[in-house]
Design goal:
Layout: H1 2-27, E1 37-41, E2 46-50, E3 55-56, E4 64-67, E5 85-90, H2 100-106, E6 112-121, E7 127-138, E8 141-150, E9 153-162, H3 168-180, E10 183-184
Length: 185
């Protein structure tokens, strides 16, 4: 009789544990969406993926810079047409920047409106910590900068769009997904 009680107890204990393991695995199974294109920067030492609807602004660049409009319709001197957005991923500036904090201090001239730390899930139960900075709008353009480290490689991603754009949250979400796909070369 005791053996059946112990067996039932263990079975009831194990089932929720397996369910929990499945749920945790699901949270961390951030996969690269089907059809996304790879972009490799040998200069900055990273690989990221981006959606095919977005186009490289300048083909053959050493850093990812994509837009949600045909590059031929960019506005001279401004780049972004009304409703346009730009996302990029870049390596650190040429000056001696060894940490995210140093890079934040270097970019402080851009004027931070707000700053927060976010943990983005990645594949294989990994995550990437980003420092997200919303910069003061310049001439109507808003910029969200995300500073992060992938296996010791410092990188930053930016989403640039017009102030008041109703799709701003989508652009920032897409930037986060691109960052989550980053790998060091």
């Amino acid at each position: 009789m005791k053996a059946k009680t112990i067996s039932r107890f263990l079975r009831n204990l194990v089932r929720p544990g397996l369910l929990l393991l499945w749920a945790v695995g699901t949270v961390y199974s951030q996969q690269i969406p089907k059809g996304w294109k790879p972009f490799e920067s040998s200069r900055s030492g990273y690989l990221v993926y981006y959606p095919p609807q977005w186009r490289p602004l300048f083909p053959n660049e050493s850093n990812l810079e994509i837009v949600n409009f045909p590059p031929s319709s960019r506005v001279s001197g401004v780049v972004l047409p009304p409703g346009g957005a730009l996302i990029n991923v870049v390596g650190p500036p040429a000056t001696r920047v060894a940490t995210i904090e140093q890079w934040l201090a270097y970019d402080a001239g851009a004027g931070a409106q707000s700053q927060k730390t976010i943990i983005l899930p990645r594949s294989n139960r990994e995550s990437v910590k980003i420092v997200e900075v919303v910069q003061q709008p310049i001439e109507g353009e808003e910029t969200v900068a995300c500073y992060f480290d992938v296996s010791g490689r410092l990188l930053a991603g930016h989403a640039v769009y017009w102030k008041g754009d109703p799709n701003a949250a989508q652009y920032i979400g897409l930037l986060h997904k691109i960052i989550a796909s980053a790998k060091r070369l």
